[in-house]
From TrEMBL:
Described function: Probably plays a role in anchoring the complex to other cellular components.
Organism: Chenopodium quinoa
UniProt-recorded name of the protein: Elongation factor 1-gamma
InterPro entries xref list: EF-1-gamma_plant, EF1B_G_C, EF1B_G_C_sf, Glutathione-S-Trfase_C-like, Glutathione-S-Trfase_C_sf, Glutathione_S-Trfase, Glutathione_S-Trfase_N, GST_C
SUPFAM superfamilies: eEF1-gamma domain (SSF89942), GST C-terminal domain-like (SSF47616), Thioredoxin-like (SSF52833)
Region (Disordered): 210-264
Domain GST C-terminal: 87-215
Residue spans of biased composition, Basic and acidic residues class: 224-247
GST N-terminal domain segment(s): 1-82
Residues annotated as domain EF-1-gamma C-terminal: 257-311
Keyword Ribonucleoprotein: no
Family, per entry: Belongs to the GST superfamily.
Length: 311
């Protein structure tokens, strides 16, 4: 049974296994008429990869998914494959750079690129963080390549295949010349790799993007015509009925009763004189006091008598 790779012919993750196969002399057939979103949702495909991700490699011993795992499998099909170096330390460094290419380069390029084409939510602060992370990764890679032609040793290894395939998306879709010029050793390395015969056979001609893709606009939803608000008929406020209240006639003021003392003849008693007499009397005190008191009492009794008659 030949090896069959399930993926589209422009899938950069499928390129890893195809380029490794060229170096290892392994034949891999790319499935025909693969349609993303359709072919990877069939029951047959989901039996090979339950979550429907691509690529998937069919082998005589069963399917393999995850692109780096597939590339490792293909590289090991040839005994003493140069793609895995010539020593244990080479093997460790190759695995190191494969992880670096996946976690520091590929992941951050996707964090920058995917929101711009509308496949995830675009947030300017998140984009700034992604660009910063891409620059950090490329700076580290640039430093290493300043004194190395390849990532490990003196020939192409699986680390170079994985790194270059991850950079293909960046250079062709979002990393402009202005951006990559800050990393000259990365530029030299990338263009050297993609022009290697085994790379070029799979990748074809690679051109660097001239601009960063604009942020995809969300499709505008049709606006429903607003229902015209019903005109409210203003009701005239009903005037409250005037309660018929009989006019109360004011009673004529009653004449004030006259003071009964006014009916008496003027009193001959002068109270102030009696007080002076009473105060200045040294002898016959009792007689003087009784005389004045009797006259005063007569006036009081008369007032009480006539007052009752009037009431």
């Amino acid at each position: 049974m030949a090896l069959v790779l399930h993926a589209g012919n422009t899938n950069k993750n499928a390129y890893k296994a195809l380029i490794a196969a060229e170096y290892s002399g392994v034949k891999i057939e790319l499935v025909k008429d693969f349609e993303m979103g359709v072919s990877n949702k069939t029951p047959e495909f989901l039996q090979m990869n339950p979550i429907g991700k691509v690529p998937v490699l069919e082998t005589p011993d069963g399917p393999i998914f995850e692109s780096n795992a597939i590339a490792r499998y293909v590289a090991r099909l040839k005994a003493d494959s140069p793609l895995y170096g010539s020593s244990l330390i080479d093997y460790g460094h190759i695995e190191q750079w494969i992880d670096f290419a996946s976690l520091e380069i590929d992941a951050n390029i996707l964090r920058w690129f995917v929101p711009r084409i509308g496949f995830s939510l675009y947030l300017p602060p998140a984009e700034e963080a992604a660009i910063s992370a891409v620059k950090r990764g490329l700076e580290a890679l640039n430093t290493h390549l300043a004194s190395n032609t390849y990532l490990v040793g003196h020939s192409v290894t699986l680390a170079d295949i994985v790194m270059t395939c991850n950079l293909v998306l960046g250079f062709s879709r979002i990393l402009t010349k202005k951006f990559t010029s800050e990393f000259p050793h990365v530029e030299r390395y990338f263009w050297s790799m993609v022009n290697q015969p085994n790379f070029k056979k799979v990748l074809g001609e690679i051109k660097q993007t001239e601009s960063v893709p604009p942020v995809a606009k969300k499709p505008s939803q049709p606006v429903k015509p607003k229902d015209e608000p019903k005109k409210e008929v203003k009701k005239e406020p009903t005037k409250p009925k005037e309660a018929h209240t009989p006019v109360e006639e004011e009673e004529a003021p009653k004449p004030k009763p006259k003071n009964p003392l006014d009916l008496l003849p003027p009193s001959k008693m002068i109270l102030d004189e009696w007080k002076r007499l009473y105060s200045n009397t040294k002898t016959n005190f009792r007689e003087v006091a009784i005389k004045g008191t009797v006259l005063f009492s007569v006036h009081v009794l008369l007032y009480g008598f006539f007052g009752k008659l009037i009431d």
